[in-house]
Specification:
163 residues
Length: 163
């Protein structure tokens, strides 16, 4: 059987799963039906739970009492699970929203600094200072040699040769 790589189901399965292991129709269809089931059941449940959480926050105790008394059996369990999923979804929205806003502000500040001439000249001066040759400090070199337990060779040169 040939499956077109531009078909909607191939692109959907490829977005969620690794396709390099699939060489048979059965695992492909298991992945496709699993993804479709999670989308068909999960997305409405997520929206229902998020709506329940909003209603709970807005109406408070009255909505909670009516919500508890209205459900019975399987619907009550489904409603409770959706409420928990909705609560977690709102937490994720808040965390990712905060993280995205912080990253957005940092990106704007970084973009401003990269386009700022004084910042660029400051970076250039700092890089120039870092690249400048420094004579090694004899005390620092001696401490390094004691730490490494290797004594380096010493060359005695006149002041004219060092420049």
């Amino acid at each position: 059987m040939n499956i077109n790589t531009s078909s909607w189901h191939y692109r959907l399965v490829n977005k969620f799963c690794d396709m390099w292991r699939v060489n048979n129709l059965c695992p492909y269809m298991r992945r496709l039906t699993g993804i479709l089931a999670s989308i068909v059941i999960g997305v409405p449940s997520l929206l229902y739970g998020m709506t329940e959480m909003v209603m709970l926050v807005v109406n408070g105790r009255d909505f909670l009492d009516a919500w508890i008394n209205s459900g019975s059996g399987l619907f009550a369990v489904y409603s409770g699970v959706c409420a928990a999923i909705g609560f977690l979804a709102w937490c994720a929205v808040i965390v990712f929203g905060f993280g995205y806003s912080v990253m957005y502000v940092v990106g704007k500040v970084n973009n401003y600094l990269e386009n700022n001439q004084s910042y660029q000249s400051w970076q250039y001066k700092r890089a120039k200072r870092a690249m400048k040759y420094k004579k090694p400090n004899i005390f620092v070199e001696w401490c390094k040699a004691r730490h490494d337990q290797i004594c380096p060779m010493v060359d005695f040169v006149s002041e004219e040769k060092t420049e």
